[in-house]
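Quick log. Single chain, no ligands specified.
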Amino acid sequence: MAFTTPQGRTATSLSEINVTPLVDVMLVLLIIFMVTAPMMHTGIDVELPETRNVKDVNPEERIILSISREGDIFYGAEAVNFADVPERLRRDAKGPKDAIFLRADKDVKWDAIVSVIDAVRGAGFSEVKLVTKPFALENKR
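-> predicted structure:
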């Protein structure tokens, strides 16, 4: 496309896109996502007990209950009342054959863990799986 200047000369327009601002914005977004992505795992800080046999859990496809060190119960990343656990499980699960994953801090009293398992089974779910982490190298010796 050509333009005529006030002096009568013909000048062509600049048809290239300046991508520098776009690259700057994309780099900032990349840094933001890299910083926030690890925080979005579950949002609950639970120190899991260590075992020898550990299977990976895909948290996006599973129903995960967590018990914090203080004994608070979380459904995913949301704090819930103990009495609301069966209702939430029935509402969100596909059926009674779904496995419910329980993450509990290693310092939680056994009574709290058993109470949550009992509530899950009382809601009609028979498969409760306990989530653990593998032994650290220094513990294997």
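The radius of gyration is 27 Å.
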